[in-house]
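Journal club prep — side note

Before the paper discussion, L.F. wants everyone to see what a predicted structure for a comparable chain looks like in token form. Sequence:
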Amino acid sequence: MTTATQLPLQVTATPSALALIEKLKARYGELMFHQSGGCCDGSSPMCYPRGEFLVGDSDVLLGEIGGTPFYMSRSQFEYWKHTQLTLDVVTGRGGMFSLEGPEGLRFLIRSKVFGDDEIAALRTAGRI
């Protein structure tokens, strides 16, 4: 969503993803997401207790969902920077180290390409 005074969100979440985040927060405390774009587990969003995964200069903070920061590796971001990412939940097995695994659910990313005006706004703001 874009308004005259707001940048488009680079990451959002579905209601079911937000509900799972709240459930995991109640169990594990504050959380964080990281998506590396690597093989196997790295190709899906990984949910960790906040601070368990160390982020650095090679990671980009896309925003927060449900009060939870979402990071992506800079190399992966280069491929996805023109898309709005939406965190969703489906039935199945997630990443081996991601906290949602025991729930029988997994987080996944859906994406939508930004429109020209959204891309211009993000460029002007130095976000892409």
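L.F.'s comment for the group: The mean pLDDT is 91. Keep this in mind when we get to the figures.
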